[in-house]
Structures are given as C-alpha cells and as structure tokens.
C-alpha cells in the first residue's frame, strides 16, 4: 500500500526514503552518542563558568558582599553558613586553576563531540569518505565548533528576547510601552528573525559538518525543516521543564533530565534532516560509492573421470585378483 502512495506523491517517497536511511544507519544510536558527548562536554563548560564568576566577584566587592548577605539570610545554621561562605572564598581563590583545567577539558571534549557529530551526520549519507590529514581535520573541527557555539547562543538569545521582560522595560524606557500592538509586533519580528537565523545555522550544520562535499543550496530545505522543528521543540521543552520544576524531585533531577532529552531530540531531528538531504535526488551525484570487497582468486583443481582409464584400472585389478587367487590355491 505504501508503494502506491510513494509512486503517487514524490514528497512522500522522499520522506519514506529519509526514514529508511535513518533507520538503516542507526540514527537513534548516533543520537544517543551525541547526547552522551554533549552532556559530558557540559562539565568543563561549567568549570569555565565558575572561573569567570570568580574573576567577576574578585573585581566586584559589592556584588560579592550582596551574595554572601543573601546566603546568610537564607541559611539559619551558623556552621553551614560559614561552610558555604568558605566554599565561595575557595572557589574564588582557585579561579585560575579551575579556568585552565576547564578550558583544556572543554577543548578536548568539544573536539571529541564535534568528531562524533560529524561521524553521525556522515553516516546518514552512506558515502565513502576519503582519508584526510589529522591536523587539518582537527583545526577544521575546532573552527566549526567555535562558530557553531557562537551561532547557537545567538539564536537562543534571539528566541528569548521576544518574550523577555527586558524587552518590555526597554520599550517603557523609550516611551513606547503604551503603543497598541507594538509588543506583539516586536515578538513576531523577533520570531521571524530567529527562524531565519536558525535556518542559516542548521543549513550550515547539514551542509558543512558531514564529510561529504555538496552545494550549500541543496541543504536549504533540510535546514528549514530542522529550524522549524527545533523552534517547536524549544517551546515544548520550555513548558515541560517549567511544569516539572515545580516539585522537589523535579527541581533536583528535572534540569539534567530536561537537558538530556532536549539534546537527544535535537540530535535526532538533525540526523533525520541530514538523511533527508542525503536522499534528495539532487544530491545523489555527490555520494561516493563504497569500494567493493576485494576479490579473492583461489585455484580450483578439478579431476575429470576418464572411461578408458577406469576400464584399464578395473582390468588390472581383476588380473591381480585372479593371480593372487591362483597363487593361494597352489600353496594349499
């Protein structure tokens, strides 16, 4: 039944081809791997964030005093309050060491993350990949990682700007807060700009991260599909995490579980979109077929039966048998 609809609708045939490629190349498996390396890479980033916070606090005594004052008011027990204060002082004192270790760990984990992302996206193409120079590959991975991180942070900031209270404060300060419909207009414009930015971002990911060279324009449809799905996923994740965080168990485990699920579904969306681009008829010319298995040539020895030889052998056996029988009778 599906074949009938695939023959009738080319777009449905493309969707089914992408889904089959995703399943054949174990898209869920690579999505889980990307999630693992993404969560693993968060820890050095947290260390870098702590180091940056330490440098900010050491240069802003008023902010440090305010933080300690709020901790003192929130914790009633004297020993615990002193322990937290000492912990803050130790974190500030070790900011340089934490920062260096965090940067080194972030670099190592980030390059490993990028290598695994590229491996997963390349697998969706089912294409032979030529061997590349190790140093050039790592430098290219580093540049792609930095650009991707900056672009992703910028896109998320744009998504949050439309509904942020800061936007309303800026409008009020400019005297435009009472203009009818202006906040909705700004939210719509922000959403559109964010969609365009996401479109460019995911088109770059699908077109340049796989180790298969093909034109940028041939990845625009897959990039738009990813951008729309990612924005929908972001809104759904925001609502779900907000609901889960209300309970004590959710406040403890909700953030890390939410981050893992968000990364996992994002990875699956990008992998499916890459499979979509890889099964696009326009991109088939850029797929390098895998080299065939080596042919093993083994000599085969065949022994054909010869009727003449068989008759001679039989006669010889008969004569030998008769001679042996005659010899035995004489001895008796």
Task: Describe it.
It is a multi-pass membrane protein. This is Inner membrane protein YhjD. It comes from Tsukamurella spumae. Keywords: Cell membrane, Membrane, Transmembrane, Transmembrane helix. With 332 residues, the protein is an all-alpha fold. It has one domain. The chain is 78% helix and 0% strand. It has helices spanning 2-8, 10-24, 27-58, 61-74, 78-93, 95-123, 134-161, 165-173, 182-208, 220-244, 248-278, 307-331. Helix 3 runs antiparallel to helix 6 and helix 9 packs across helix 11. It is elongated, with a radius of gyration of 35 Å.
C-alpha geometry: elongated
Class inferred from helices and paired strands: mainly alpha
**What composes the largest sheet?**
none
Order of helices and strands: HHHHHHHHHHHH
Our Rg estimate from Cα atoms comes to 35 Å
Topology, number of strands: 0
Percentage of β-strand residues = under 5%
Unreliable stretches covering 5 or more consecutive residues: none
Number of domains: 1
Keywords:
332 residues, mainly alpha, 12 helices, Inner membrane protein YhjD, cell membrane
Short summary:
With 332 residues, the protein is mainly alpha-helical. The protein is built from twelve helices and no strands. This is Inner membrane protein YhjD.
């Amino acid at each position: 039944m599906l074949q009938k609809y695939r023959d009738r609708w080319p777009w449905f045939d493309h969707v089914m081809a992408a889904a089959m490629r995703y399943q054949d190349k174990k898209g869920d498996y690579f999505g889980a791997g990307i999630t693992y390396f993404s969560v693993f890479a968060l820890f050095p980033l947290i260390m870098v964030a702590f180091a940056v916070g330490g440098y900010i606090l050491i240069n802003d005594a008023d902010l440090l005093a305010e933080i300690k004052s709020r901790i003192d008011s929130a914790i009633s027990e004297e020993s615990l309050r002193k322990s937290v204060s000492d912990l803050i002082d130790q974190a500030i004192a070790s900011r340089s060491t934490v920062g260096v270790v965090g940067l080194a760990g972030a670099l190592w984990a980030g390059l490993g993350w990028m290598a695994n992302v590229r491996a997963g996206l390349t697998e969706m193409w089912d294409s032979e990949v030529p061997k590349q120079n190790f140093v050039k590959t790592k430098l290219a991975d580093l540049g792609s990682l930095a650009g991707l991180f900056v672009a992703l942070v910028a896109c998320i900031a744009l998504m949050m700007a439309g509904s942020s209270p800061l936007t309303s404060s800026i409008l009020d300060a400019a005297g435009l807060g009472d203009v009818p419909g202006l906040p909705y207009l700004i939210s719509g414009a922000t959403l559109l700009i964010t969609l365009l930015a996401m479109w460019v971002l995911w088109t770059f990911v699908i077109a340049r991260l796989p180790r298969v060279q093909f034109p940028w324009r041939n990845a625009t449809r897959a990039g738009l599909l990813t951008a729309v799905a990612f924005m929908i996923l972001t809104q759904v994740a925001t609502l779900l995490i907000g609901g889960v965080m209300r309970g004590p168990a959710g406040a403890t485990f909700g953030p890390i579980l939410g981050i893992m699920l968000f990364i996992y579904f994002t990875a699956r969306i990008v992998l499916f979109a890459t499979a979509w681009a890889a099964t696009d008829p326009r991109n088939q010319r850029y797929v390098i077929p895998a080299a065939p298995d080596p042919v093993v040539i083994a000599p085969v020895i065949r022994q054909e039966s010869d009727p003449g030889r068989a008759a001679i052998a039989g006669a010889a056996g008969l004569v030998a048998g008769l001679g042996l029988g005659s010899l035995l009778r004489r001895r008796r």
